[in-house]
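Data availability (excerpt). The following record was deposited with the supplementary files.
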Amino acid sequence: MNLAVCAEMVFTDLPLVQRIERIHDRGFQVEIWNWTTKDIEALKATGATFSSMTGYVSGSLTRNQDELLKTAEQSIETAHRLGCPRLNLHGTELNDRGLPVVPAYEVTGEMWLEAHRTLEKLAKLGEQNDVMFCLENLNTEVDHPGVPFAKARDTIALVGAVAHPNLRLMLDIYHAQIGEGNLIALIEKAGPLIGEVQVADVPGRCEPGTGEINYPAIAAALERIGYDGTIGLEAFAASDSELALQRFRQAFTAAAV
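Predicted structure:
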C-alpha cells in the first residue's frame, strides 16, 4: 500500500509548499484540498507525488449540477498539471469550514436519482480524462452536519449503482467510526469499490494510535481483501507532526512485517 499525507493538517506552522516538501522528503505522497487557493507551479516544483485533491469547486450532486460538472472539468486540468490521479467528491458543496452551503437534513428519493445521474456524468468525465473521481463518506454528528449521502453505506450504494471504474469510494475510516462503526465489516463490504482510504483516530481526528480505532486490525482487514492502493493520513498531529507521520507509517507497515 502507498502512504500519503494531507498537507493541510500537518506541519501547520509552515507555509504549504514547505509542508509538501517535508512530507515528500519523508517518503510520502501528498494530498491537498481546494486547489484554487494554491500556486500550482510551486506545488509542481516540489517534485512531490500527489495522490488526491478536491475534484470540484462549487455545485452539488442534486442542485447546480452543471456548476459541479464545470468545476470538475477545471479540477481535471489542475490534476493533470500535478499528475494527480484521484479527485475527491462530497455529497454537496462545502464552505471553508466544511459545512454544507445548502444543508439537507432529509434526503428524498428524487435526490437519490439526481445524485446517481450526476455521478454517472462524472464517471464518464473521469473516463474521458483518465482520472478517478472518489466519493467520500463524512460524519454528520461532529464535523459535517447537513451533508446528504454522508454515511459510508450511502456512498457505497451510489458508487455501486453507477458501477464505473472511474468512480470509486474515498473510504474515510475516521468519519465511518463516528457515523457507523463496525469498521471491519464496512471494509469487507466496500471491497473493490475503494479508490483510496483516508485515516485519522477518534476522538480528536489525530494520527492512528491516539484514539479508539484499532488501526493494526484495519490494516490487516485491508490486506485480507487485497487492497493495495493508497492510504492517506487526513489527520492533525496530536503533538508533533514528525511523530504523527512515524505513527502513521508504523500502523500500516506492522501488519506486513
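Summary of structural features: The mean pLDDT is 96.
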